[in-house]
Design a protein that fits this description.
The chain has 665 residues and is an alpha/beta fold. It folds into 3 domains: 211 residues; 153 residues, 2-Layer Sandwich (Alpha-Beta Plaits), CATH 3.30.70.270; 251 residues, Alpha-Beta Barrel (TIM Barrel). It is 62% helix and 15% strand. It contains 21 helices and 16 strands. A hairpin with a 3-residue loop joins strand 9 and strand 10. It starts with 22 loop residues before the first helix and ends with a helix. It binds ligand C2E and magnesium ion (MG) (2 copies).
Length: 665
C-alpha cells in the first residue's frame, strides 16, 4: 500500500474562478458623466441668472441716476434764471421782473422736490437742505431789493457778502449732484457692457463644454450598455458550461437534447452516458489537481472523437454525456462508443505519472428507449450501470436491464417512501474519553428497517441517496430523530451529545443551517448537544461554500468533526482554515495500527497534527484493548469502536450505559 496517498501535503486548490467585474468602472464613468453634466448645467443656469439680475440692477441704477441728473440740471437752470433776474429786480422791484423772479423761484423749488422724489428715500435730507438754502437765497435777494432802495453802495456790499454766497453754495451743490449722478450712469453702463462681453465669451464656452459632456455621457452609456450585454452573455455562458472543462453542463445538454428530439422527426437521437471507472481512486489518492487534469484530458478526447454537430457535456463529477442528434442505427452509436472508449484507453500523463482511465458507457436511443431527454438520461444511466456491473465497456439499454438493476432505481423510490413512513431507524454508538473511559457522546448511525428485506445497513442506500436530492430530507430526518432521542435522554438525566453524519449535498444546501437551528429550537436543546460529522471529500467538493456553511453552524454553537480523516486525500491547508472542532481518524488506519507500524506512525502524526491545530482527536474503529491503550498513550482524546460498544438501538444503549456504570461503581 502506498502511504503517500494521503500524506498531509498542502492542497492544490483549484484555479480560482476569476470574476470579471468590468461593470464597475463603466458604472463609475456613467455616474461621473451625469454629475459633470448636471454641474455644467447648474453653472450655466447660475451664470445666466446672475448676469440677468446684475444687468437689470445696473440698468435701473443708470435710469435713476439719469433722472436725478436731469432734475439737478433743471434746478441749476431755474436758479441761474433767478440770479439773472436779480439786477432787474433791484432796478424795478415792482415791475414784471418780480413776477418772473418768483416764477423762476417756484420752478427751482419744484425741480428740487422732483429731484428728491426720483432720488428716493435716501435723498430726503439733501432735498430739505437744498430747499432751506434756496429759501435763504430768496430772502437775501428780497433784502437786497430793500437795501438797493436805501443806498446803492450798501446794496452792492450786501450783494457781495450775503446774496452771492447763498447762490454759489446752492449752485455748487446742484452742479456737484448732477456731475456725480452722470458719473454713476457712466459706471452702470460700463458694467452692463462688461457683463455682456463676458456673456458673449462664456456662453459659447459653457455650451461647448456641455455638448462635449453630453457626447461623453452618450458614449459612456453606450459602452455601459455594450458591457452589460457582454456580461450577460458571459454569465449565460458560465451558467450553461462546466467551469473546469468548458463543456456544456447538464442544463445545456437538456436544452440541446430537447431541441434535437424536436428536430429529429423520424430520425434517431442517441444519448451516451459515460462514467469513468476508478476515477475516485485517482482523485482520493493523488488529489484534485490530478483529477482535474484527467477530466480535462477525457473531455478533450471525447470532443476529438465526435462530430461537430454532436454535443459532449459534463454532467458533474466523472460523468459525461454525448448527444448524437442524427444516428443511423443502434450499431453506429455503439461503434462511436467503442471509439470513445479506445480514445480514453491511452494513458494520461500528469506530472510524470502515467494514469490509466477506463470508462463505462450506456446508450439510449430516441423512439425505442424514450421520447424525452429525461427518460433517455435515465435509461442510458441504467445501461451504463449495467456496463459497469458486468464489465462490458458499452451497453445499449433494453427494458430487461431494469430487472438486473432494480436495486438502484427501485430502492430510491422505496427510500423516498421509507422517509415518509419513518422506516429509517437510528442506532447509537458510544464514544469514551481516553484516559478515563467516561462516555462522552454517541454517534447516530441510520439503518433502514425494510418491511421485506429487514435491516439494511447505510452502505447500501446512503451512497445512492447521496447521488440525488433525497439525501437532504434524509439528513433532516436523521437530525430530527437524533435530537428527539437526545432530548429524551436529557429529560431522564442522561446528558449525552449526539453526532450525525452529513453529506456533501447538505453543505450545498442554503437552507441547511436554518433547518438545523429550527430542529434544535423544536427539541429545546442547546446547539452544544449536536455534533455534525463531515467527510473530507464533502468539503473538498466545494471548499468555499463548505467553509461558509460550516462557519455559520460553528457560530451557532454546533460542534463540527472531520470524519474518516486519512481515508482520502487530505489537504492540510484546507483543514487549517476550517472552523472544525474535532478530527476522527479513519477506522481503516486505526484497525491496522497494531499490525502495521507505518499505520501507527501515521495515526501518531495525525494526532499531533490535530492537537497542533487545536482539535480534539477521536479514533474510530477501535476493536481491541491493545489499540485502545496504545491510542491513550499516544494522546488520543476519544475512542469509538466495537471494543467499546457497537451501534445499538436507544434502549440497548441505555442498558449498556447502566451496566457499565454499575460495573464501574
Ligand atoms: P462513519 O460515519 O464513519 O460511521 C462509523 C462506521 O463504522 C459505522 O458503520 C460503524 O458501525 C462502523 N464501526 C464502528 N466501530 C467499528 C469497529 O470497531 N470496527 C469496524 N469495522 N467498524 C466499526 P455504519 O453504521 O455501517 O455506517 C457506515 C457509514 O455510513 C458511516 O460511516 C457514515 O459515513 C454513513 N452513515 C451512517 N449513517 C448516516 C447518516 O445518517 N447520514 C449519512 N449521511 N451517512 C451516514
Ligand atoms: Mg461518522
Ligand atoms: Mg467515520
Amino acid at each position: 500500500m502506498q502511504r503517500s496517498r494521503w500524506l498531509l501535503t498542502p492542497g492544490s486548490p483549484r484555479e480560482p474562478v476569476t470574476r470579471v467585474r468590468r461593470g464597475a468602472p463603466v458604472r463609475l464613468s456613467t455616474h461621473a458623466a451625469s454629475a459633470g453634466l448636471v454641474a455644467v448645467l447648474l453653472v450655466l443656469t447660475a451664470f445666466s441668472v446672475t448676469a440677468a439680475v446684475t444687468n437689470a440692477r445696473a440698468s435701473a441704477e443708470a435710469q435713476q441716476s439719469a433722472a436725478v441728473s436731469k432734475w439737478s440740471e433743471q434746478v441749476e437752470r431755474s436758479l441761474l434764471l433767478q440770479e439773472t433776474l436779480v439786477d432787474q429786480l433791484t432796478v424795478e422791484p415792482e415791475n414784471w421782473s418780480r413776477t418772473a423772479f418768483d416764477a423762476a423761484g417756484a420752478a427751482t423749488r419744484d425741480a428740487i422736490e422732483e429731484m428728491g422724489t426720483v432720488a428716493g428715500a435716501g435723498h430726503t435730507d439733501r432735498t430739505g437742505e437744498w430747499l432751506r438754502l434756496h429759501a435763504r437765497y430768496e430772502f437775501a435777494v428780497d433784502q437786497l431789493v430793500v437795501a438797493t432802495g436805501q443806498s446803492p453802495r450798501t446794496a452792492e456790499r450786501f450783494e457781495e457778502v450775503y446774496v452771492d454766497p447763498h447762490y454759489d453754495a446752492l449752485a455748487t451743490l446742484v452742479r456737484g449732484e448732477a456731475t456725480q449722478h452722470w458719473e454713476r450712469v457712466g459706471e452702470a453702463l460700463a458694467f452692463v457692457e462688461e457683463v455682456q462681453r463676458v456673456l458673449l465669451v462664456a456662453t459659447p464656452v459653457a455650451f461647448g463644454a456641455g455638448l462635449a459632456l453630453v457626447a461623453w455621457f452618450t458614449s459612456v452609456l453606450s459602452r455601459s450598455r455594450r458591457e452589460t450585454v457582454a456580461q450577460a452573455e458571459r454569465n449565460r455562458q458560465q451558467a450553461l458550461h462546466d467551469a473546469l472543462t468548458g463543456l456544456p453542463n447538464r442544463t445545456l445538454l437538456h436544452q440541446q437534447g430537447e431541441a434535437a428530439l424536436a428536430d429529429a422527426g423520424t430520425g434517431t437521437v442517441a444519448l451516451m452516458l459515460i462514467d469513468l471507472d476508478r476515477f475516485k481512486e485517482i482523485n482520493d489518492t493523488l488529489g484534485h489537481a490530478y483529477g482535474d487534469v484527467v477530466l480535462q484530458a477525457v473531455s478533450d478526447r471525447l470532443r476529438a472523437t465526435v462530430r461537430g454537430s454532436d454535443t459532449v457535456a459534463r454532467l458533474g463529477g466523472d460523468e459525461f454525456a454525448v448527444l448524437l442528434p442524427h444516428v443511423v442505427d443502434e450499431e453506429s452509436a455503439q461503434q462511436l462508443a467503442v471509439r470513445a472508449l479506445a480514445a480514453m484507453e491511452a494513458p494520461i500523463a500528469v506530472e510524470g505519472i502515467s494514469l490509466d482511465v477506463d470508462a463505462s458507457i450506456g446508450i439510449a436511443l430516441s423512439g425505442r428507449h424514450g421520447d424525452d431527454l429525461e427518460s433517455l438520461l435515465q435509461n442510458a444511466d441504467i445501461a451504463m450501470y449495467s456496463a459497469k456491473d458486468r464489465g462490458l465497456g458499452v451497453c445499449v439499454y433494453n427494458p430487461s436491464l431494469n430487472d438486473h438493476s432494480p436495486e438502484r432505481l427501485g430502492l430510491l423510490g422505496q427510500l423516498r417512501r421509507a422517509i415518509d413512513n419513518r422506516e429509517l431507524v437510528l442506532h447509537f454508538q458510544p464514544k469514551i474519553t481516553l484516559p478515563g473511559a467516561r462516555v462522552c457522546g454517541v454517534e447516530a448511525l441510520v439503518r433502514w428497517q425494510h418491511p421485506e428485506r429487514g435491516l439494511i445497513p447505510p452502505g447500501e442506500f446512503i451512497p445512492l441517496a447521496e447521488r440525488t436530492p433525497l439525501i437532504e430530507p434524509l439528513t433532516r430526518y436523521v437530525i430530527d430523530a437524533a435530537l428527539e432521542q437526545c432530548a429524551r435522554w436529557r429529560d431522564a438525566g442522561r446528558l449525552l451529545g449526539v453526532a450525525v453524519n452529513v453529506s456533501a449535498r447538505n453543505l450545498h444546501d442554503e437552507h441547511f443551517v436554518a433547518e438545523v437551528a429550527e430542529l434544535l429550537a423544536h427539541w429545546r436543546l442547546p446547539a452544544s448537544c449536536l455534533e455534525l460529522e463531515v467527510t473530507e471529500s464533502a468539503i473538498t467538493a466545494d471548499p468555499d461554500r463548505a467553509r461558509r456553511i460550516l462557519g455559520e453552524l460553528a457560530e451557532r454553537g454546533v460542534t463540527l468533526s472531520i470524519d474518516d480523516f486519512g481515508a482520502g486525500y487530505t489537504s492540510l491547508a484546507q483543514l487549517k482554515d476550517l472552523p472544525v472542532h474535532r478530527v476522527k481518524i479513519d477506522r481503516s488506519l486505526v484497525a491496522s495500527m497494531a499490525a502495521d507500524p507505518s499505520d501507527a506512525l501515521i495515526v501518531r502524526s495525525v494526532l499531533e497534527l490535530g492537537h497542533n491545530l487545536g482539535l480534539t482527536t477521536v479514533a474510530e474503529g477501535v476493536e481491541d484493548e491493545a489499540t485502545c491503550q496504545r491510542l491513550g498513550e499516544m494522546g488520543c482524546d476519544v475512542a469509538q469502536g466495537h471494543h467499546i460498544g457497537r451501534p445499538m438501538a436507544a434502549e440497548q444503549l441505555e442498558a449498556w450505559f447502566d451496566a457499565r456504570v454499575a460495573v464501574r461503581i
